[in-house]
Design a protein that fits this description.
Blueprint: H1 3-24, H2 44-51, H3 56-70, H4 72-80, E1 90-91, H5 92-101, H6 106-112, H7 118-121, E2 125-127, E3 139-142, H8 144-150, E4 164-166, H9 194-198, E5 205-207, H10 214-224, E6 228-233, H11 234-237, H12 242-256, E7 258-263, H13 275-285, E8 289-293, E9 308-310, H14 316-327, H15 334-337, H16 339-342, H17 347-364, H18 370-385, E10 389-392, H19 405-419, H20 421-427, E11 440-445, H21 452-463, E12 466-470, H22 472-475, H23 482-494, E13 499-503, H24 519-537, E14 541-546, H25 554-558, E15 562-565, H26 571-581, H27 593-599, E16 601-602, H28 604-621, H29 627-640, E17 649-650
Parallel strand pairs: 5-8, 5-9, 6-7, 7-8, 11-14, 11-15, 12-13, 13-14, 16-17
Antiparallel strand pairs: 1-3, 2-3, 4-6, 10-12
């Protein structure tokens, strides 16, 4: 509204309110009807009213409220009509009185302010407190975003929604999967109807891996209709009451002339936070929105099921073209072209990795290399996993490992399974025979110090993968839904990257599901269920270690490709470990390693610690490493384990 219009409407409010107050105080002057200035249809508030579908009465009521908020005199006059002028907001009865004074039917004005009406339901006006009592006694205010627009200001996002604008790119540049790869009740050509469906009271639901292009697709389709897309993370709004959230969503769409994408709507263990409840409320209110998630929603949770469309990862040949285009390389640069086949990343991650790779090459001042690309992908993973784990760079080799033959054979089979899975699964067609994901999950079982973590590092090095050790204490959370959120961020970051995930000492998270006797049991079981699903869908390599096989859920054991046991080394293996742990460069006296192997039943980790301790003791004495130094270090190892005297098994 222009300053002139605000002043005109405010003058009308002041005249009406003055007449009403005078009449109530016994003055002879009756209430006089005054005219409301004509609304200029080119002004922002008029366009907002039109987009919101307001009728003439509701539009004039909105103008009265905006003028009362923007003009101090009109605001004071409206508050004087209230039963308690000290309370915040404007009383509905005062609004109706002012409306009647400018020629609007009081019944129609009251109807326009009903909670189910468009002024309230679409977030243009808000109750100052939780709506209770008769409608005439309730108090309301104009939403701050509407006032900002009325003053001619630039629209800003609703603060609580934390919405962001998604940049649209031409549809022909999108790397979408073929129509045959789209799962649901609609082939690819139905994508074009997304905008129509989003505004028809049946919001579509897009399903697909992170960064596959769900939001980008919606933004590109919306751009054809001259709409922008505002993206809202479901996890940021899930706890908000629906009666306040839905009007806020409507307001966001109206002010920005936007379609909303409510993303990451994966199921939560808390039914009160279920995305299906929000979907139902949004559908009933007609908010122009599209929902997205990584997993297909359970249609049984919906009163009216959504139209579900699944976006799959592009096939290898299209992914290779995307990599080549993003990197700006030619067919002759074979090593870079091959990355499209080696790194099955989602399109969004390909674009980001290519950008970072070019920056790395520019900083170094050389041509782009495959190592730049791999480092860029590694940085993406590190950014997402940094708070929940760490990257391990291990310098150990197979020469440092001493294992029984059966354990060694199982590890060799695991390595071969990973190295040859493209040949067996894709080239030989076995992938079609698999109902679940093509990833590999293995569990290493055995006492502490038997080499589980070390072997995981050596496997990663041999396969050319980066090892990320996940901190289980940071994943598990007492807050409902946070554990699943943490797990999702880890698996999403690692999907398609050259990464091996190591869940060290995973007993707490993979424990057996229990009989449900309380809400805690239900949430704990739901976390295990979620983890089982993510492990099954993960297409990378995950290794889990545990000291307590009996505590692991049986359903999880069935999903493991390998269960490899690491036992405490026998005498012969311990002697070999003692010898191999002593570097060739170390200054040593004559040492009977066989005697140490016979006398002390130590695991490999304890032997490593003892040798290192002995080396520091010897260095402090400025002498070679002797049996005496080793004896002292072994005593310290037993003491650290809570044993007063050396002897017996230590692992």
């Amino acid at each position: 509204m222009s300053d002139a219009e605000v002043s005109g409407v405010a003058r009308a409010i002041i005249d009406v309110c003055s007449a009403v107050v005078a009449e109530e105080e016994g003055e002879p002057a009756p209430v006089q009807r005054v005219s409301l200035p004509v609304l200029d249809r080119a002004l922002p508030i008029a366009g907002l009213a039109e987009r919101a579908g307001l009728d003439a009465v509701a539009t004039d009521v909105l103008r009265l409220l905006v003028a009362a908020e923007l003009d101090r005199r009109a605001h004071r006059c409206m508050r004087r009509l209230a039963q308690d002028p000290t309370l915040p907001g404007i009383e509905v009865d005062a609004v109706v009185t002012a409306a009647e004074g400018v020629g609007i039917s009081s019944a129609l004005a009251l109807e326009a302010l009903e909670p189910e009406g468009r002024l309230v339901g679409r977030g243009l006006v808000e109750w100052t407190e939780r709506a209770t009592g008769p409608l005439l006694t309730r108090r309301l205010t104009v939403a701050q975003a509407v006032l900002r627009l009325a003053r001619g200001g630039f629209p800003t996002p609703t603060e609580q929604l934390l919405a962001t604008t998604k940049v649209a790119i031409p549809l022909e540049e999108l790397a979408l999967a073929d129509a045959t790869a789209v799962v649901g009740r609609a082939p690819q050509h139905r994508y074009a109807q997304l905008v129509f469906e989003a505004s028809s009271g049946r919001p579509p639901w897009l399903v697909g891996p992170a960064a596959v292009g769900k939001r980008t697709l919606v933004a590109s389709l919306a751009a054809r209709e001259r709409l922008i897309v505002r993206c809202i993370d479901y996890r940021n709004i899930a706890a908000r009451p629906l009666d306040a959230l839905v009007p806020a969503l409507w307001r966001e769409a109206l002010i920005h002339e936007a379609m909303l994408v409510i993303h990451d709507c994966d199921a939560s263990v808390d039914a009160a936070r279920s995305p299906s409840a929000l979907y139902g409320a949004v559908a009933r209110a007609g908010v122009p929105a599209v929902f997205t998630s990584a997993e297909t929603p359970r249609l049984a949770d919906f009163d009216s099921p959504p139209l579900v469309l699944e976006l799959a990862l592009p096939p290898p040949e299209r992914r290779a073209v995307l990599w080549q285009s993003a990197l700006g390389v030619t067919d002759e640069q074979r090593e870079l072209v091959q990355l499209g086949w080696q790194l099955p990343l989602a399109p969004g991650r390909v674009i980001r990795a290519a950008s970072v790779a070019h920056e790395l090459a520019a900083i170094r001042g050389t041509a782009l290399t495959a190592n730049d690309v791999r480092e860029a992908v590694s940085q993406q993973v590190a950014q997402k996993v940094a708070t929940l784990g760490k990257r391990i760079r291990d310098s150990q080799t197979w020469d440092d490992v001493v294992l029984p033959p059966e354990t060694t054979d199982s590890i060799k089979e695991l390595v071969a399974r990973v190295r040859l899975r493209k040949q067996v699964l894709e080239d030989w067609g076995f992938q079609r025979k698999l109902a679940k994901g093509i990833g590999l999950a293995a569990m290493f079982l055995g006492p502490p110090g038997t080499g589980k973590t070390m072997v995981a590092g050596i496997i990663a090095k041999e396969l050319g993968l980066e090892l990320y050790q996940i901190d289980m204490s940071r994943i598990a959370s007492k807050w409902i839904g946070e554990t699943e959120k943490n797990l999702a961020s880890i698996f999403d970051a690692a999907e398609g990257a050259n990464v091996l995930l190591l869940f060290d000492e995973c007993d707490s998270l993979f424990a057996k599901r229990s009989e449900v006797k309380s809400s805690n049991d239900r949430h704990a079981n739901a976390e295990v269920n979620y983890l089982l699903q993510r492990i099954e869908r993960f297409e990378g390599v995950a290794i889990l270690t545990t000291n307590l096989e009996s505590s692991i859920d049986p359903a999880f054991k069935r999903r493991l490709a390998f269960r490899i046991h690491f036992s405490v080394p026998d005498v012969k293996e311990r002697e070999t470990l003692w010898r191999r742990m002593m570097p060739k460069e170390a200054r040593t006296a004559s040492i009977d390693y066989g005697a140490f192997a016979r006398d002390y039943e130590l695991a490999g980790g304890n032997i490593r610690n003892a040798v290192l301790r002995a080396a520091f003791l010897a260095a402090a004495d400025d002498s070679p490493i002797t049996e005496s130094h080793l004896e002292r270090s072994i005593v310290l190892e037993y003491r650290d384990a809570g044993k007063l005297s050396p002897g017996g098994r230590l692992s």
